[in-house]
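User: Let's play a game. I give you a shape written as tokens, and you guess the letters that built it. Ready? Here's round one.
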């Protein structure tokens, strides 16, 4: 099995993905890469098991803080 050729774009995708996994915000990464728009930066981001797990955990934490009971207004 041979090595896969890497381009500068492959490197940028890897860097953005790893920085997101480390908790750096997309806006900070945008500024580091010199992009005018966060949409451009988001194109470089890839979903990984770690980012999916962190997303699910963040959603669960948020929903756990919400009140699940409704009060009737009589």
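Assistant: Ready! My guess for every position:
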């Amino acid at each position: 099995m041979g090595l896969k050729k890497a381009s500068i774009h492959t490197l940028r995708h890897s860097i953005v993905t790893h920085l997101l996994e480390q908790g750096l915000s997309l806006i900070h990464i945008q500024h580091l890469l010199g992009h005018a728009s966060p949409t451009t930066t988001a194109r470089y981001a890839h979903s990984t098991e770690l980012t999916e797990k962190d997303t699910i955990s963040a959603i669960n934490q948020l929903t756990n803080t919400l009140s699940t009971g409704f009060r009737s207004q009589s």
